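Ticket #4471: structure output looks truncated?

Reporter: J.K.
Steps to reproduce: submitted the chain below (72 residues) through the standard prediction queue, then opened the result file.
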Amino acid sequence: MMIEGSFEPRVQANMDVALERVCGKAPDGQRHDVRKRVAKAILQCAKSGKTALGALTEAGEKALWRIPNKVA
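Returned output as attached by the reporter:
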């Protein structure tokens, strides 16, 4: 999924920071599937016009809460 050029540089930077903030706090935050789900939520938030760092972070956190715990 390419987003480069779709948003202003400031918005892209906010999206990157939000992703790192959310995934950095999560125990499984470095897993690809977790990061992908969080990133999709952040992207949807930005597409809806909510591009402030707080809004993007909140969207990512909500997506993180919806990830089911997997039993090994």
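Triage note (M.O.): checked the attachment and the full token line is present. The two ends are 29 Å apart (CA to CA).
Status: closed, working as intended.
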